[in-house]
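Training component of the fellowship. As part of building independent skills, the fellow (R.M.) carried out the full modelling exercise for a liganded target. The chosen ligand was flavin-adenine dinucleotide. The inputs are recorded below so that the supervisory panel can assess the work.
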Amino acid sequence: MTHDLAVVGLGIVGAAAVHAATRAGARVAGIDAGAAGAGTSSTSFAWLNACKKEPEHYHRLNAEGMAVHRELAAELGDDGGHHPGGSLEWTESVEEREPGVASVSAPVAGKDGSLLAAVSVSGPVERMSRHPGKNFGGAVAHCARSLSAALAAS
Ligand SMILES: Cc1cc2nc3c(=O)[nH]c(=O)nc-3n(C[C@H](O)[C@H](O)[C@H](O)COP(=O)(O)OP(=O)(O)OC[C@H]3O[C@@H](n4cnc5c(N)ncnc54)[C@H](O)[C@@H]3O)c2cc1C
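Fellow's submitted model of the complex:
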């Protein structure tokens, strides 16, 4: 059998190349020194995101990649293994600005995704603990994301 193309290395990158070329009608030979998908791709956290990807064009590349993952998942159906996980983000501060004070903050995004404001809770370290993010990070991030979603929908 003859092939139009050989793809060497069948991690996520090679597998995606095989898929795209096959879909375009090419006869593709996929070659791997070991087992397909057993390299770095098998150790990934599999988190699809565009968070903290800078500069802007790198963020856009990642966001477009997420959109293509969604399209591929729709094409492959339930066996695709696509789990859009999302993320909750917060930052904590313990006596960084004021002695005895701890806080947790999360970003509120404007309609264009840029940083618009922050939701923050702060209080005495003995009440907030030295790990305030562990106690309040989820609630603060949830609140900030709700505000961001409301702004995006307005
Ligand atoms: C701990 C960890 C967590 C990560 N978490 C994330 C995450 O949450 N989200 C994310 O987007 N990315 C994550 N990444 C990064 C992501 O996993 C890699 O960028 C991606 O898997 C790389 O894919 P790849 O196809 O280039 O390489 P690989 O998956 O390593 O595939 C390369 C393949 O090439 C084969 N090969 C190598 N040399 C030859 C040769 N000479 N001949 C034939 N075959 C060869 C290997 O056997 C292997 O199968 C993470 C990485 C790590 C290590």
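The panel noted the following from the submitted structure. The chain has a mean pLDDT of 92. Residues 8-14, 31-34, 38-41, 43-47 surround flavin-adenine dinucleotide (CB under 6 Å).
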